[in-house]
Amino acid sequence: MKTLYDVQQLLKHFGVFVYVGKRMWDIELMAIEIDNLYKANAIDKQAFLSAKLVLTREHRVEEEYEAAKDNLE
């Protein structure tokens, strides 16, 4: 798993579709859903860790984007 799209496809496999309207919130909700799938033993440790790494990276990128956007205003 390398991209946010890959994580979305994993969630889609379990019938989980995430769209809150703000990218940051989508990423955070996906992280919660991944946690729940792992706790329910629906995904293995490797898939869990890969998804969490992708989500952590995307969350950091989004935070940096928001900070840069705020500095321009």
From TrEMBL:
Protein name in UniProt: Cytosolic protein
Top-rank taxon, per record: Bacteria
Species: Ligilactobacillus apodemi DSM 16634 = JCM 16172
InterPro entries documented for this protein: YqgQ-like, YqgQ-like_sf
